[in-house]
Amino acid sequence: MARKFDHLLEKHNLKKTAPRNSVLEILSTRDVATSQPDLEGIIGKDIDRVTLYRILKTFEEKGIIHKIIDINGTANYAFCHGDCSEHHHQDEHIHFNCVSCQGVYCINDVSIPHINLPQGFSAHAISMIVSGVCDKCQSSSEENA
Ligand SMILES: [Zn+2]
Ligand SMILES: [Zn+2]
Ligand SMILES: [Zn+2]
Q1: Nearest ligand, measured from the Cα of 111
Q2: CA-CA-CA-CA torsion for 34, 86, 90, 77, nearest 10 degrees?
Q3: What parts of the chain have a pLDDT lower than 50?
Q4: Which of 37, 95, 121, 128 is the most exposed place for a label (fewest CB within 10 A)?
Q5: Domains of the chain: residue spans and CATH
Q6: Ligand 3 center–CA 41 separation, angstroms
């Protein structure tokens, strides 16, 4: 039986395995980026830690997901929505890290401003994290007030 993400895996010349499908399924249903420990918690014992690490690394290299290092230094992963391809990510949106729920959001509508680097410097990647309180935490604190 064909699984939901077989087509995507095929497109990237990846073997269609159940663990890879599960990881994509989970990442696609969450509106925040997900860290490896969180994924482990959701998946349980079905996928061991090393396999999960390799899956995430492969997906990142293939341009399927991108990594966001949050304000605590933890790596979080989210689906790429741009024109990312193998070894070439174009996720030039900012990320928002909520200090209350720790959620890491892709703010796809806001691009990273152009940065003028000194002569001789060439940028390969750029990331921008805004920390603060997300809309969900904002409204729940209003309710409790
Ligand atoms: Zn990407
Ligand atoms: Zn929040
Ligand atoms: Zn993102």
Answers
A1: 3
A2: 0
A3: none
A4: 121
A5: 6-144 (1.10.10.10)
A6: 22
